[in-house]
Design brief:
Layout (H helix, E strand, L loop, with lengths): L3 H17 L15 H10 L16 H9 L7 H5 L2 E5 L8 H7 L12 E6 L2 E2 L12 H8 L14 H14 L6 H19 L7 E6 L10 H9 L13 E2 L1 H14 L6 E8 L8 H10 L15 E8 L3 E2 L9 H14 L6 E8 L12 E2 L4 H6 L9 E5 L2 E2 L3 H5 L9 E5 L2 E4 L8 H22 L4 E5 L2 E4 L4 E3 L2 H8 L4 E4 L3 E2 L6
Parallel strand pairs: 1-2, 2-4, 4-6, 6-7, 7-9, 9-11, 11-13, 12-14, 13-15, 14-16, 15-18
Antiparallel strand pairs: 3-5, 8-10, 16-17, 18-19
Helix pairs in contact: 7-9, 8-10, 10-11, 15-16
Length: 509
């Protein structure tokens, strides 16, 4: 029989044995102790999920570069994100871009598979004729006149030799490369030759887009960059009045070359179309556009058959320009004819986004004597255009008429399931002479209600999202939808509406 004293003695011995054992301490967690997938998540968050334009700007990859240097265990995943989004800078003929050199470097061969997205960046042109009132013989005279305020003089002849030298350097760096029309033709021809070779070197390339290489962001091999490095990025604001930049035409021909050059692996495109009021076939802007508008042989093959997602920004001057039945390459008719052919050559297109990105009066070439400022370019582009496989259509910032939506979708879009109208503006172009109750209701949202009812009757399974819609009379002042019509719109089947916040039907019960 075991006594209580024996039990206590045994327990005491066990405790002494346990106390004599060394304590087991857990190693502190370190990056290399984490599972590989967790490290991948850490690296993925360093990209910050940049928006499309931002991810290609300088400094967007600084956190990824730091991670690559910080710890060897992160290098397993950093290359996949570091080289995912790349830039093809195309600013001066004869200069090899970093991406082009990267694509043929034997040391980088193993990294080419990581490239999924490329943005082609072209320079803006300077519209030197805008805001030019002083007499001049050459364009550098304009630069000298616009720099007089910097040196507190009224006439360039009053400048010192040092100041005159500065003006000359300023013009050579920040003006002349962006006003020489010969440069644009050479850049276009260079793109036709080199871009197809560059794109095909990336086996997993999925997306190609176009963007602008701003004057302050030119590559190190240019005198523009050297001048910026010496005098700072704010130097471009020294001219008064400032020069007006216009990248619309360069973005348009770059988009056309992307279409011609995209390899079969690409399924997504972000492009730009130009929409200007210059109808002269002799104008340099139209000669550049004519070169690409007439190069449509590639549309007859299967080059664009794999494109599923396409975004097109229509840039330039609002309205429609020239006659709709015009057979030339200029005006709205030339642009529309080309892009209708392009969209028709994408049989597997499921998502189409169209954005109207028109500038102010500065970009006009004329007084709009041959234009309709209230014209709807969307009707020219999409009416009776067969988009048999399209599932989602996004229209952003367009000026619509009450019957526009009814014209552009229907039998030509049989598979469409979602329509998004973002910042869309609807305008009654022929209101009554006197402001009536009907006009008031139209401004409050009656026009949008009519559009949605027509959509529901025509395509009952269509989902329609209205994001901050507005209404106007004769395209003057635009008014948001009134509270009464918000509830009526949300009562329509398949209709959702967003203003500053998300609205649901329950809010109006």
């Amino acid at each position: 029989m075991v006594s209580a004293n024996d039990t206590l003695s045994t327990a005491s011995s066990v405790l002494e044995i346990r106390d004599s054992r060394p304590l087991t301490r857990h190693k502190p967690w370190t990056l290399d102790a984490l599972p590989s997938e967790i490290r991948r998540l850490i690296v993925s968050h360093l990209t910050l999920d940049w928006p499309y334009q931002t991810r290609y700007t300088k400094g967007a990859k600084i956190h990824l570069k730091n991670a690559n240097l910080a710890h060897r265990c992160l290098r397993e995943w950093v290359p996949g994100f570091l080289f995912r989004d790349m830039v093809l800078t195309h600013v001066l003929p004869g200069i090899v871009s970093q991406l082009q050199a990267f694509s043929v470097d034997p040391a980088a061969a193993a990294l080419l598979r990581h490239v999924r997205s490329i943005q082609v960046q072209v320079p803006p042109a300077i519209r030197w004729e805008i805001r030019t009132t002083d007499p001049f013989d050459f364009i550098d005279d304009i630069t000298n006149n616009r720099l007089t305020k910097k040196f507190s003089v009224k006439d360039p002849n009053e400048m010192s030799l040092e100041q005159q030298e500065y003006c000359s350097n300023y013009h050579q760096a920040l003006v002349e490369p962006f006003t020489d029309n010969r440069t644009w033709h050479r850049l276009l021809n260079s793109a036709i030759h080199f871009w197809p070779q560059i794109f095909t070197r990336f086996p997993n390339l999925r997306h190609i887009g176009v963007g602008v290489c701003e004057r302050v962001d030119h590559p190190a091999s240019t005198y523009t960059n050297l001048f910026i490095q010496e005098h700072g990025r704010e130097v471009i604001h020294e001219v008064n009045p400032p020069y007006v930049e216009d990248a619309t035409v360069n973005l348009a021909w770059a988009s056309s070359i992307v279409l011609q050059s995209a390899p079969p692996s690409v399924s997504s495109l972000q492009l730009s179309a130009t929409h200007n009021d210059n109808l002269s076939s002799f104008a340099n802007v139209n000669r550049l556009l004519g070169m690409v508008y007439r190069s449509t042989a590639f549309l007859t093959d299967t080059r664009l058959v794999n494109i599923k997602n396409c975004t097109i920004s229509i840039k330039g001057v609002a309205g429609t320009h020239g006659a709709k039945n015009w057979h030339g390459d200029t005006g709205s008719a030339g642009m529309v004819r080309y892009w209708r052919k392009v969209l028709s050559a994408m049989p597997n297109l499921t998502h189409l986004t169209l954005r109207l990105d028109v500038e102010g009066r500065d970009l006009r070439f004329t007084n709009l004597e041959d234009s309709d400022p209230n014209g709807c370019i969307l009707e020219w582009l999409l009416t009776d255009l067969n988009l048999d496989g399209l599932k989602e259509l996004v229209l952003s910032d367009f000026l619509l008429r009450t019957d526009t939506i009814n014209k552009i979708i229907g039998e030509n879009t049989p598979t469409l399931t979602k329509l998004v109208l973002y910042h869309a503006k609807i305008s009654l172009l022929e209101p009554n002479a006197d402001f009536t109750f009907r006009d008031e209701q139209y401004l409050n949202g009656a026009g949008w209600l009519g559009v949605c009812r027509g959509l529901t009757a025509k395509m009952p399974n269509l989902k329609c999202e209205l994001i901050r819609p507005t209404s106007s009379l004769e395209n003057l002042v635009f008014f948001p939808v009134g509270f009464e019509y918000m509830s009526k719109l949300l009562s329509q089947p398949g209709v959702m509406m967003y203003t500053q916040a998300k609205y649901t039907k329950d809010m109006f019960c």
